[in-house]
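Kindly review both lines to help learners:
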Amino acid sequence: MTTSLAFLGGTGDQGRGLARRFAIAGHPVVIGSRSAERAAMAAAELAEGLPAGADVTGSTNLEAARTADIVIVAVPWEGHGTLLESVAAELAGKIVVDCVNPLGFDKQGAFAIAVEEGSAAQQAAQLLPESKVVAAFHHVSAVLLLDPAVDSLETDVLVLGDDREATDAVQALVDEIPGMRGVYAGRLRNAGQIEALTANLISVNRRYKAHAGLRVIDV
């Protein structure tokens, strides 16, 4: 049976981009949003550019969390805690993948925001004690994910978590996207520097007009 995936906050570029790639890989995907109407519109627009038979639907975040096997959190940082509190019961017993980067922006560019719990992923773990929280997908370009001309995304995805079965499952998911590889990168307590590194990649991209990712060598 194919694993179904939900993307909470999935109407944003990162959520739609990941949903697109996993739908192409054959997974049923659900775009979640505070508004069921907005989610349905985003799902319909996304489905237009996908191969025949791709399974993409939209619903509220609550319904998406309830129905999917694995849930990816792609909501903006400002709404992260509030969203997770509202769907905690629906996420009990599930793998929850957090790809949220707590970042701020000013005239000097992007910078990491200090999180009381240590990271967005650790905040998720505290708010979802009955879920298996995994941190992943922080450094994947939404532009490349959404670009139909890009067949292969040449990047590694750092995967962090405290449950070996859950991190193995997420690494296997990553490997289904052509060009991408899931690399285990430690316990959830190390997620803070992974999230913060995104600010550095944004600076790289702005300076070089690129969509930089990461590669881990000798692994």
Remarks:
- The chain has a mean pLDDT of 97.
- The CA atoms of residues 167 and 190 lie 14 Å apart.
